[in-house]
Design a protein that fits this description.
Radius of gyration: 17 Å
Helix content: 10-25%
Number of strands: 8
CATH architecture: Sandwich
Number of helices: 1
CATH topology: Jelly Rolls
Number of domains: 1
Structural class: mainly beta
Shape: globular
Organism: Bacteroides clarus
CATH superfamily: Galactose-binding domain-like
Protein name: F5/8 type C domain-containing protein
Oligomer: single chain
Keywords: Signal
């Protein structure tokens, strides 16, 4: 009997952990500062579709850009995971949160990172848990082969 109770408790813990690891951004409402529409659709919805073969790209030549997720209600989270494009471009970013989509507070402020231009990369930002309706990845600068360029993101995940 003790083994059954222990096994059931173990399954409960695994289930709770799996739920805690659910990507809260998947298929949520997302907007962007801009989008590159040619030669194909690079809209912001591509960054939350769960498909690493699609991507959002800011309009060509954009210096700063952002992706903003609306959870529809206040949601608790503490981590943002970014799957970069085929050539990792994000050089400096912040993670910001908001209750109304107008007033933003940084939870991760102006992080500079070294881009790996030869391949895509997955990187994450963790912070003290917050309960907010909106989260925004604000990209201060992006580069390609050492030159400024538009940002491009395959997936933006929130946990």
């Amino acid at each position: 009997m003790k083994k059954i109770i222990f096994a059931a408790f173990g399954l409960f813990l695994m289930s709770a952990y799996a739920q805690a690891q659910e990507n809260l951004a998947l298929n949520k409402t997302i907007t962007a500062s801009s989008e590159w529409a040619r030669p194909a659709n690079y809209g912001p919805d591509k960054a939350v579709d769960g498909d690493n073969k699609t991507r959002w790209s800011a309009i060509k030549g954009a210096a700063e850009s952002w992706l903003q997720i609306d959870f529809g209600e206040k949601t608790k989270f503490s981590k943002v995971v970014v799957n970069g494009d085929y050539a990792d471009r994000v050089a400096k970013y912040s993670i910001e949160v908001s209750d109304d989509g107008e007033k933003w507070k940084p939870v991760v402020k102006e992080v500079e990172r070294e881009c790996n231009q030869s391949k895509s990369s997955v990187w994450e930002a963790t912070f003290k848990s917050v309960k907010k309706r909106y989260v925004r990845l604000f990209i201060h600068s992006s580069v390609s082969n050492g030159n400024p360029c538009e940002a491009s993101i395959c997936e933006l995940e929130v946990y």
